[in-house]
Amino acid sequence: MSGPGSGPGAAPAGEPGDDPLAVFRDLRERTVRDQHDLFIAESRHVVERVLVATDLDVVRVVCTAAAAERLAGGLARVPAERISVLAPDRLAALAGYDVHRGVLAAVRRPPARSPEHVLAGARLVAVLEDLTDPENLGALARSASALGVGGLLLSERCTDPLYRRTVRVSMGEVLRLPFARLAPWPDALARLRDRGWCTIGLSGDGGHRIEQLGPLAAGRPLALVLGSEADGLSSGARRGCEHLVRIPMRPGVDSLNVAAAAAIAFHQAGLAAGEVG
Questions:
Q1: pLDDT at residue 13 is higher than 70
Q2: Beta bridge partners of 103
Q3: Which residues contact 99 (CB under 8 A, 6 or more apart)?
Q4: Rounded CA gap, 20 and 28, in Å?
Q5: Number of other residues whose CB lies within 10 A of the CB of residue 76
Q6: H or E stretch including 165?
Q7: What are residue 124's phi and psi, to 5 degrees?
Q8: Which residues lie across from 40 on neighbouring strands?
Q9: pTM exceeds 0.70
Q10: Degrees (nearest 5) of the Cα angle 72, 76, 80?
């Protein structure tokens, strides 16, 4: 383990350049993903989740001495040469911001999954159309994990579930949810129906109240379809849903934030699917 202000150990095989901390500089998401095949975990809680509750390959950790002490148990599984301890101001300067709570980890991305992998063994999944805000997706993933959703299926234009802010806002819960891209969108919704799934979309003008999710699904596994932050469900996605349900609200309110609406829907769907009680 490199000490404060000292040079870090050799970079793990396959990492970029001669500077083992280069991946943390300015944290450009697409560079981290596309050039290095990594994602960034930040904050003690999230990095601890990666270290303790997953078998993901942690290729580099940079942290303060205080964070290293608190994460000692989890860090024991990371080779010492992959860990660099820096003074807080140096860590903030490296990352370009100071909201990481003292620790950043560069983690190898898991292999891409297929929709069939996500559906296998699940009774409730969330299908997401064109969600583009990483924080919305992170909040949604946190609710999904808590309320019995077994996986996420995302249209091609959805944001990356492993973006740094998504992972942080989800408190690491997105790492527990299997996810896959569902393509081509929205025609691929028919694949769910062909496999026996009941596809129900969430829309402010839905013909059914959300309390009717259980009777509408009639014992079939349930795929809850949620639309984009700006436009809701597209016309193609609406056609791909067997039913549309709405969350009753006070008159004059346009809509709920998609993450808030998802939490309400997940709770009701979880009850209907027997995933929460």
A1: no
A2: 63
A3: 42
A4: 16
A5: 9
A6: helix 164-169
A7: -145, 125
A8: 106
A9: yes
A10: 105
CB atoms near residue 9 (< 10 Å)? 16
DSSP letter string, 32-97: IIIIT-EEEEESHHHHHHHHHH----EEEEEE-HHHHHHTHHHHTTS-GGGEEE--HHHHHHHHTS
Side by side, the strands of the sheet bearing 103-108 are 38-42, 103-108, 58-63, 83-85
Q: How far apart are the first and last CA of the chain?
A: 46
Cβ 86 vs Cβ 62: under 8 Å: yes
Q: What is the mean pLDDT of residues 232-237?
A: 97
Q: Are 176 and 145 in contact (CB under 8 A)?
A: yes
Token digits for 209?
């109240």
**Per-residue model confidence as pLDDT tens digits over 80-136:** 999 999 999 898 888 877 756 799 999 999 999 999 999 998 999 999 999 999 999
Strands 222-226 and 198-202, by their bridges, are: parallel
103, 42 contact by CB (below 8 A)? yes
Which residue type is seen at 135?
A: E
Return d(Cα 274, Cα 272) in angstroms, integer: 6
Angle at 208 between CA 205 and CA 210, to 5 degrees: 100
